[in-house]
């Protein structure tokens, strides 16, 4: 395996590249909503970088001092950086969900969170309260002329892309009904521009519904499939003909949730004795679903998938298991070294070998018998998360993959670096913000009018613990060994976010234009 080429600064960072107390401060709430031109810029914002970056993530980690139990329960806050002619404008607004407005008015926690946030007053105050707060905190996309804040267990919220004002729940021209889920991980087909998304209705057997829209937002297909067992599925991947899911081996015991003792996600238990199930659903609703069992593991995010002949190749970030979320735990005290890292694996799924285990000509079993027609190979052992590819390569054979990564080559640690993998040559590059910086998902923006897959920029919001502020790093995706093209220092920090996207449309603040 080739060694990393390190951006020169990274070589001077001590082996333990982070400080847990400094890392924690990136989880402080940001209560203010800002709106300003960014004037503290190191380097130069590329003149041909035009458009708008939207980020979503938990903005509040407390309600009036009452602590949110887990960041996944925090109210969604959109951060927006709009680029035009070498300048950039920042603004942020909370999504005015029903729950956000009620809790802000009351000044206290009124809803239980899926990840264990409880109302004050112990289990008696929480028992039998099964109301769900749609926190709209996971992703934000501008698509079909709509800006949508997404959370996987409920409908999207629609926002005004200029002002980030919340316009209300969005039903996609009647495709969704009140209470319907709509995953926070839609995929936009790199060839056709179609948007494919899914929703999960978990139960003893679970229902996966697939939605496919044309680029204007018109529904093309909607089809539902039942899979055996409880499904906790956050993400999926697409190819021109298939949607691919990993059904993680988890069980759900709702009793402690109903009784007010635990949040719903705290009732999910990983079961390493059960296989992970690969669910392959053709995008053509007339074709049958396929299921494959593989060794147990847990996946939040898939990087990409593509087809070659009768095979599907799927690249996913896998964990040995899903750590339980415990009621008495504090996420801020996370012992990174005690957890297994996410690592990138490639799965090769032979569509013609659905039942029999793969065998070598000599008759010896080549793969475990429970992995019929599935081969796997580790592509990256460094702790990594938040994969991104050039948007034109979604569902297509591709060469370059970008991810958030740990600074150190082994072990589990906070994400402080961005790694670029060349899947053709096996070489990789790393830009590290350690020891003071903590990165977020790298959003790839193609340079206009170019065909080269890695010709563009990576935009990553970095929490700078030295300043307790955040900056946006603009990296030249062609060469991460170079220093960032620009660092745009914000006046404040942005709490660690989840996902976001870029649109070439300019949505700077109307007020400041
Ligand atoms: Co996600």
Q: How does this structure look, described?
A:
- This protein is mainly beta.
- The chain is built from 4 helices and 36 strands.
- Cobalt (II) ion is lined by residues 185, 234-235, 300-301, 498-499.
Number of E-type strands: 36
Spans where pLDDT lies below 50 across 5 or more residues? 1-9, 356-369
Radius of gyration: 22 Å
> Kindly, what is the distance between the CA atoms of the first and last residues, rounded to a whole number of angstroms?
50 Å
Share in β-strands: 35-45%
Please state the structural category.
mainly beta
Give the CA-based shape.
globular
Largest sheet: 6 strands, antiparallel
Number of helical segments? 4
Mean pLDDT: 90
Bound molecules: cobalt (II) ion
Summarize the amount of helix as a percent range. under 10%
Tags for this model:
six-stranded antiparallel sheet, 4 helices, globular, binds cobalt (II) ion
Write a short abstract of this structure.
The protein is built from four helices and 36 strands.
How do the helices and strands line up, and which of them pair or pack?
Elements: E1 5-6, H1 20-24, E2 35-37, E3 40-43, E4 51-58, E5 62-63, E6 66-67, E7 76-84, E8 87-94, H2 98-106, H3 122-126, E9 139-143, E10 146-150, E11 157-159, E12 166-169, E13 187-188, E14 195-201, E15 205-213, E16 219-228, E17 237-238, E18 242-247, E19 250-252, H4 255-258, E20 268-270, E21 276-282, E22 290-294, E23 298-308, E24 311-319, E25 343-350, E26 374-380, E27 384-388, E28 400-405, E29 417-422, E30 428-432, E31 437-438, E32 443-446, E33 456-464, E34 469-476, E35 486-489, E36 500-503
Parallel strand pairs: 1-30
Antiparallel strand pairs: 2-8, 3-35, 4-7, 4-36, 5-6, 7-8, 9-10, 10-11, 11-12, 13-14, 14-15, 15-16, 17-18, 18-21, 19-20, 21-22, 23-24, 24-25, 25-26, 27-28, 28-29, 29-30, 31-33, 32-33, 33-34, 34-35
Bound molecules: cobalt (II) ion (CO).
Cobalt (II) ion binds at residues 185, 234-235, 300-301, 498-499.
């Amino acid at each position: 395996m080739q060694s990393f080429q390190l951006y020169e600064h990274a070589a001077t960072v001590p082996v333990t590249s982070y400080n847990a107390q400094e890392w924690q401060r990136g989880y402080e709430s940001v209560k203010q909503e800002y709106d300003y031109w960014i004037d503290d810029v190191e380097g130069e914002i590329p003149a041909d970088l035009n458009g708008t970056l939207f980020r979503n993530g938990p903005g509040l980690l407390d309600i009036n001092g009452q602590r949110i139990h887990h960041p996944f329960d925090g109210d969604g806050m959109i951060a927006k950086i709009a680029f035009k002619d070498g300048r950039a404008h920042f603004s942020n607004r909370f999504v005015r969900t029903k729950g956000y407005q009620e809790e802000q008015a009351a000044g206290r926690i009124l809803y239980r969170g899926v990840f264990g946030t409880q109302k004050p007053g112990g289990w008696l105050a929480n028992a039998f309260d099964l109301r769900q707060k749609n926190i709209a905190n996971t992703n934000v996309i501008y698509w079909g002329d709509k800006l949508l804040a997404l959370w996987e267990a409920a409908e999207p919220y629609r926002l005004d892309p200029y002002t980030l004002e919340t316009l209300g729940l969005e039903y996609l021209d009647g495709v969704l009904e009140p209470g319907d889920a709509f995953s926070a991980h839609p995929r936009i087909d790199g060839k056709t521009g179609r948007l494919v998304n899914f929703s999960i209705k978990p139960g003893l057997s679970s229902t996966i519904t697939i939605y496919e829209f044309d680029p204007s937002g018109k529904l093309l297909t909607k089809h539902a499939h039942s899979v055996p067992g409880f499904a906790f599925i956050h993400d999926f991947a697409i190819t021109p003909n298939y949607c691919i899911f990993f059904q993680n081996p988890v069980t759900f015991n709702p009793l402690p949730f109903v009784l007010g003792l635990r949040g719903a996600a705290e009732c999910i238990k990983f079961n390493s004795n059960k296989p992970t199930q690969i669910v392959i659903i053709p995008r053509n609703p007339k074709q049958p679903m396929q299921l494959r069992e593989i060794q147990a593991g847990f996946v939040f995010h898939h990087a990409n998938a593509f087809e070659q002949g009768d095979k599907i190749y799927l690249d996913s970030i896998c964990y040995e298991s899903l750590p339980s979320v415990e009621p008495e735990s504090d996420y801020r005290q996370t012992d990174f070294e005690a957890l297994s890292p996410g690592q990138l694996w490639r799965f090769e799924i032979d569509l013609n070998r659905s039942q029999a285990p793969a065998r070598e000509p000599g008759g010896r079993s080549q793969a475990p018998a429970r992995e019929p027609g599935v081969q796997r190979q580790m592509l990256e052992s460094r702790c990594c998360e938040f994969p991104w590819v050039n948007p034109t390569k979604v569902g297509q054979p591709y060469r370059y993959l970008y991810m958030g990564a740990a600074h150190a080559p082994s072990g589990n640690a906070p994400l402080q670096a961005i790694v670029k993998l060349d899947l053709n040559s096996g070489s990789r590059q790393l830009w590290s913000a350690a020891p003071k910086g903590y990165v977020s998902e790298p959003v790839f923006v193609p340079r206009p009018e170019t065909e080269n897959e890695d010709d563009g920029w990576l935009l990553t919001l970095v929490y700078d613990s030295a300043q307790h502020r955040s900056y946006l790093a603009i990296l030249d995706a062609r060469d991460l060994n170079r220093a960032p093209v620009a660092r745009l220092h914000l006046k404040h920090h942005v709490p660690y976010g989840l996902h976001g996207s870029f649109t070439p449309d300019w949505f700077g603040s109307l007020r400041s234009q």
